[in-house]
Amino acid sequence: MTDFKNDKEDKDFLETAAKLLPEKIDENTWDEWIARIKDTTDCKGKQLFMPIKKALTGKEHGSELKKFLIFIERSEILKRLKNA
């Protein structure tokens, strides 16, 4: 397992994202989660997606997060988001 290190400037945003992560992870989680984050922060576009993508995958490019998210346990998602 890769040990990801999040950018320090993303720490507060990722902490907020972690708090807003739905309890149940399924095919609807991504849309619900992103809506919660948008409603809570002023982030949109790359500013919204890139810190989450880098935290969850360790990369700036790759799989669509909506499809990728359901393959990771909630506890692992939280661990990766808080790894700053």
Briefly characterize the structure:
This protein has 84 residues and is mainly α. It has 5 helices and no strands.
Taken from the alpha-carbon principal axes, the silhouette is: globular
Strand percentage: under 5%
User: Using only CA atoms, what is the Rg?
Assistant: 11 Å
Number of strands: 0
| H and E order | HHHHH
Mean pLDDT: 90
Low-confidence stretches: none
Helix content: 40-55%
The N- to C-terminal Cα distance equals: 17 Å
Report on this model:
With 84 residues, this protein is mostly helical. It has one domain (18-81). 55% of the residues lie in helices and 0% in strands. The protein has five helices and no strands. The longest helix has 12 residues, at 29-40. The two termini are 17 Å apart. The model has no long low-confidence stretch (mean pLDDT 90).
What topology does this entry show?
Elements: H1 11-20, H2 29-40, H3 46-57, H4 65-68, H5 74-81
Attribute tags:
mainly alpha, 5 helices, 84 residues
